[in-house]
TrEMBL record, chain A:
Pfam families: Glutaredoxin. Monothiol glutaredoxin involved in the biogenesis of iron-sulfur clusters. Its main location: cytoplasm. This is Glutaredoxin. One of its GO terms (cellular component) is cytoplasm. One of its GO terms (molecular function) is disulfide oxidoreductase activity. Homodimer. [2Fe-2S] cluster binds at C29. It is found in: Cytoplasm. Glutathione binds at K21, R58, F70, C83, D84. Signal peptide: none annotated.
Amino acid sequence: MDILDTIKEQIQSNSILLYMKGSPNQPQCGFSAQTVQALMACGERFAYVDVLSNPDVRANLPKYANWPTFPQLWISGELIGGCDIVTEMHASGELQTLVKEAAAAQSAS
Amino acid sequence: MSVEEQIREQLTAGLVPVHLEVANESHMHSVPPNSETHFRVVVVSDAFAGKRQVARHQQVYGLLAAQLEGPVHALALHTYSPGEWQERENSAPTSPDCLGGSKATSPEAQA
């Protein structure tokens, strides 16, 4: 499959998806680690892609997303943002609401 | 011109900020001394009013496309409208510690 098709499929089929460096248990970057912490605090299951072990995704997603860096959080097919945005949304409570809604929508479908 | 100065110049021209901080945080990461790879930027501009955060960051990335394709590896961004900045009492969050390379300190990162 073309790498862009792979990326689109990942984004479409996972309502909560984090592109990050490393894994949630072993993040390889402080920005990825902080984003995972905020997301895990929401208490819902989420999918992740380690861009360090998927160099094709790392090379092609930034252009598709119009977003040059990692991590990237995608919810319900939409780019939410990177570490700074996710952290601020977690602090304000917006992230929990968004994550709960996405999880509910996925389990209902 | 240093990368820091380029960032300052691009953002000043593109956003006419009422407040702008550009800090080189490369020393916090596993890169050679005097590197210009990791930056933290705080921008307060009328241009952000009524826009979602993701759109604001994309606007900044657009202005700094040349730097991001070149030397800049990480860009911590804090974007506010003047009203939001006032509500935050003129302060933005700090950056997390690095976990990669020689700066890895947590047991998880070293595994």
